[in-house]
Specification:
Elements (H helix, E strand, L loop, with lengths): L4 E7 L2 E9 L38 E6 L2 E5 L1 H7 L6 E9 L8 E9 L4 H14 L1 E9 L2 E10 L2 E7 L22 H13 L12 H15 L17 H21 L6
């Protein structure tokens, strides 16, 4: 597996060198946009409101504070406040797993020990298991600071990046759309009975992305039937026939050969 990041887990006076790996592999189907008449690729240009194309060097970053009013921020200003690259996952707190609202979890990674760090890694893994605890940490990945949860999964430590509290939408904001009714005791008892009759263990393998599978099957089927569109030749410079060019060159040499006996000719 490809390493995403290398550094160390730090808590108290303990430092554990680790490598970070992706723990998920999202499966999506990406299509290219083509012109229907000849299947040429469609490209996008950055244009201003007047329709003029804007070179990359002339593009500035602006934050809209009101309609058509912007605060312009330079790259240098952003660079000055960007978190500095760090190789430390700094655990500041340990909390009970049950206290974390699943809405906070974002992307997941595996943490593996670097050579020589196996014992310290195993110690943290087992201690978290027996404590039913999660380490809450901060670290910088690709110039962005993340809040993260470090927890054991099987025989590995995982790191899940987390959303900050002010990124979570409160249920209160949905209050007007929620029902203001209370079910009767009989209705509740029947609903609970129905749920409990279907209660089972969670087996993630039985839930598959049926749409993704169907799209890939369609693509494979059309590819096997040779329903494949080749990219049209680029317009502009004509295609070069290398064999014809070589033959023409040889013919030119033969034609000039008698002249070379009497007069040395500067080759073209």
């Amino acid at each position: 597996m490809k390493t995403v990041w290398r550094g160390m887990i730090s808590f108290g006076m303990v430092n554990i060198p680790v490598s970070l790996y992706n723990a998920t592999r999202k499966k999506t189907v990406s299509f290219k946009q083509l012109r229907q008449s000849d299947y040429s690729r469609i490209s996008y240009k950055k244009v201003a409101s007047d329709g003029a194309e804007v070179p990359h060097a002339e593009i500035a970053k602006g934050f809209e504070i009101a309609p058509d009013r912007y605060v312009v921020i330079s790259d240098a200003e952003l660079e000055a406040i960007t978190p500095k690259a760090s190789r430390v996952i700094d655990i500041g707190d340990f909390v009970k797993l049950s206290q974390i609202d699943p809405r906070h979890y974002d992307s997941s990674y595996y943490l593996a020990p670097e050579p020589g760090a196996g014992k310290a890694y195993a110690l943290l893994l087992e201690a978290l298991k027996q404590s039913d605890a999660v380490g809450i940490a901060r670290f910088v990945l690709r110039s962005k600071e993340y809040l993260a949860a470090i927890r054991p999964v099987g025989e590995a430590l995982t790191l899940s990046t987390m959303l900050f509290a002010d990124e979570i939408i409160s249920v209160a904001e949905l209050a007007e759309q929620l029902p203001d009714v209370q079910p009767s005791e009989k209705e509740l008892a029947m609903a609970k009975l129905l749920i409990e009759s279907q209660l089972t263990d969670f087996e993630p393998e039985k839930y598959t992305n049926e749409y993704y599978s169907a799209v890939m099957a369609l693509i494979d089927s059309k590819a096997e039937q040779e329903a494949v569109i080749s990219k049209p030749a680029a317009q502009g410079m004509p295609a070069i026939d290398i064999m014809a060019a070589i033959e023409a060159s040889l013919a030119a040499l033969k034609k000039d050969k008698p002249k070379n006996r009497t007069k040395k000719k500067n080759p073209a």
